[in-house]
Write a structure and sequence with these properties.
221 residues; 85% helix
Length: 221
């Protein structure tokens, strides 16, 4: 008799925790999406590209996954699913916030094709970077290196894009600096920092080829 209330409250507690994770991540993503849209008007010249970069958006999913892992979100033994969902909600919220603000407060978002493409990418990148954030918070050194290399590498990808495609040298150096500092400041040991940098370099080049040269060129021209 004394165990019955605890058993009954388990599913309800888990449901509330999942609702908190999804609602918080999605709401935060919407707010960041609005801010990135505003940032394009605030930042001068070519620097306005930084506010709308895929690397900056990926940070939201990474942070959401890391926060879920740090707090456990009231979801014992399901850390990675929670991190993946949090990353997905954060990334999709960014798309909704960015294009929603463009539609309501600016001249409109234009064709719905581009928002749908970015939303589709959010369904891929969101869970991946959410899990990367969770791995970075974890206890396994190999997972921490891979998770952190994903975050550093996506800024390396932006650096390649700015240097090779757009020819924006200052922005390229800035993204490269962020990639290196990410590994140096967020790695726990010297070995992890070195391995993260070594893993981030090929990841940057591979992600550039797949994301910019294949996907975006094919889908958006």
């Amino acid at each position: 008799m004394t165990l019955s209330p605890v058993t009954a409250s388990g599913p309800a507690t888990t449901a509330r925790a999942w609702a908190l994770v999804t609602a918080s991540a999605f709401t935060g993503g919407i707010l960041l999406g609005v801010l990135t849209n505003l940032g394009q008007g605030w930042l001068p010249g070519a620097w306005n590209q930084i506010a709308n970069s895929g690397a900056v958006w990926s940070v939201a999913a990474f942070a959401a996954g890391a926060l879920v892992s740090a707090r456990k979100a009231g979801l014992p033994a399901v850390g990675l699913p929670a991190a993946a969902v949090a990353g997905l909600c954060a990334e999709s919220g960014l798309v909704v916030g960015y294009y929603g603000y463009a539609e309501v407060a600016r001249d409109g978002m234009g064709s719905v094709f581009a928002p749908l493409v970015w939303l589709g990418m959010a369904f891929v990148a969101g869970p991946l970077f959410g899990v990367a954030g969770s791995w970075w918070r974890g206890a396994r050194p190999r997972h921490r290196v891979v998770g952190l290399a994903a975050l550093a590498g996506v800024f390396g990808t932006e650096a390649v894009h700015y240097a090779w495609t757009l020819h924006y040298a200052p922005q390229a150096w800035a993204c490269l600096a962020v990639a290196v500092l990410t590994a140096l400041l967020m790695g726990r040991t010297l070995k992890e920092r070195v391995l993260t940098l070594l893993a981030a370099a090929p990841f940057s080049l591979l992600a550039y080829v797949v994301f910019y040269e294949l996907l975006l060129t094919t889908l958006l021209g």
